[in-house]
Amino acid sequence: MREVPLRPSVHVLVCTNLRASDAALGPGCGDSGERVYDAFKREVDRRGAHRAIWIARTRCLGVCPKHGATVIVHPGADVLAEVEPADAPSVLLAALDRTTKDP
Ligand code: FES
After folding, report:
1. pLDDT of 17-40, one tens digit each?
2. φ/ψ of residue 60, rounded to 5
3. Residue with CA closest to ligand 1 atom 1
4. Rounded distance between C-alpha atoms, residue 94 and residue 91, angstroms
């Protein structure tokens, strides 16, 4: 193991977990998660902030919404459910704003 000297200012985990449509826990974030992930990536591209903002797909984050996707935003580990693609810019703006205010 080795530590890598890179640290994002903001790290966003987007659930893209997909279950069978008849699964007891629901279908998961699946396709919505992929659209939300793409929206975050587009926003990072638009800002040219690839070093400062990392976006990653994950499996289930434990809060399975009926629509949209679940997202966890670091720093702070904020858990957001029912996130839609249109939310990506404001989520990143709030997270970046927080990083400039926190010591
Ligand atoms: S399937 Fe996305 S949070 Fe559970």
Report:
1. 999 988 888 889 999 999 999 999
2. -55, 130
3. 28
4. 5
